[in-house]
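Project outcomes to date are best conveyed with an example. Our students and postdoctoral researchers have been running inverse folding experiments weekly, and each run begins with a structure described purely in tokens. The record below, which covers 333 residues, was selected by the lab manager from last quarter's runs and is presented without edits.
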């Protein structure tokens, strides 16, 4: 078995290097050694959510692992055969369950049997893609590529307590490359303020403040109270185009005024609409590994971030396939 040695300080130097490396190790059956894990972060090493990613990857492939401890800066991971089945992974804090999900998703799509996975912990925190965007932006693209994935959300988990709980059912299926260069005209936009145990009229203020900015047409606005493990707030805009849909959101936090949440979200949405791209900054990064598994694909992108560049470089450590880009177009070669 080939061994791939990875420097966790490369590029943006965060947890994404660990997660992508674990996924690629399982997909290619290659042993990995990661040094200086999260080497460019204020608190380097494995934190709880990263350790859960390692343990989840170990569980689905029977990997031999050394260094899987809180605070560890070095890890070796020797994967075995990927096995579908029933799994349960709990971060045990408000750490992101979405990142654990992304670590095991593609390997389980290549297993020999259906998998059901239950996640416990954070679903919406400021340092990871919120579950809402995973469900409404990322998974629709994967389904377009042929993935058969069902999600059931029991409750959200906000910082600091977490307490979220959700499940996913993954039916093994080969992904097919797709091309998405144009999103078409905007046909519908929906603004939603989600509040759970938030005092005052935060959701109402967010909606009113957003509508007053008039940055783009809003065809529908509403307030919702999701089930959650602790108090929290999310403001989200769902954009439906003729050939694409996407959810963009902004998380409310303590001492972050409702009007600021609305302004920050409006800026994100305006930037995306002005780009004329299909993938926003976050989807650009998230779609790289699915493109690799599918053996191709082409997308228009709004931004090529350091996160994206780092992910592309990690991929090149495992395979001769490359993610290329020319201006606002990204493709697999």
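After processing, the design step wrote out the following sequence:
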């Amino acid at each position: 078995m080939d061994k791939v040695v990875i420097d966790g300080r490369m590029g943006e130097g965060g947890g994404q290097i660990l997660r992508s490396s674990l996924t690629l190790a399982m997909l290619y059956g290659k042993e990995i050694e990661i040094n200086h894990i999260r080497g460019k972060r204020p608190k380097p090493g494995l934190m709880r959510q990263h350790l859960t990613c390692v343990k989840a990857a170990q569980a689905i492939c029977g990997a031999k692992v050394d260094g899987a401890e809180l605070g560890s800066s070095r890890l070796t991971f020797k994967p075995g055969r990927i096995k579908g089945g029933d799994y349960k992974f709990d971060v045990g804090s408000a750490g992101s369950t979405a990142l654990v999900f992304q670590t095991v998703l593609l390997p389980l799509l290549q297993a020999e049997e259906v998998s059901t996975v239950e996640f416990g912990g954070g679903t919406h925190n400021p340092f990871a893609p919120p579950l809402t965007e995973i469900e409404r932006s990322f998974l629709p693209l994967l389904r377009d590529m042929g993935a058969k994935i069902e999600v059931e959300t029991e409750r959200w988990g906000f910082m600091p307590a977490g307490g979220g709980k959700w499940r996913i059912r993954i039916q093994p299926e080969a992904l097919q490359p797709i091309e998405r260069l144009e999103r078409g005209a905007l046909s519908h936009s929906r603004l939603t303020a989600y509040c759970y145990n938030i005092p005052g009229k935060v959701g109402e203020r967010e909606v009113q403040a957003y509508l007053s900015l008039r940055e783009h047409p809003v065809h529908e606005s509403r307030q919702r109270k999701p089930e959650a493990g602790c108090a929290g707030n999310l403001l989200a805009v769902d954009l439906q185009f003729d050939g694409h849909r996407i959810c963009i959101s902004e998380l409310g936090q303590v001492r972050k005024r409702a009007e600021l949440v609305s302004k920050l979200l409006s800026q994100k949405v305006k930037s995306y609409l002005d780009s004329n791209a299909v993938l926003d900054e976050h989807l650009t990064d998230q779609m790289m590994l699915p493109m690799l598994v599918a053996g191709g694909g082409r997308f228009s992108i709004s931004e090529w971030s350091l996160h994206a560049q780092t992910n592309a470089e990690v991929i090149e450590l495992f395979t001769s396939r490359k993610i290329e880009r020319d201006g606002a177009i990204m493709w697999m070669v």
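The chain has a mean pLDDT of 96. The domain at 3-179+282-320 is CATH 3.65.10.20 (UDP-n-acetylglucosamine1-carboxyvinyl-transferase; Chain). The training component of this project remains on track.
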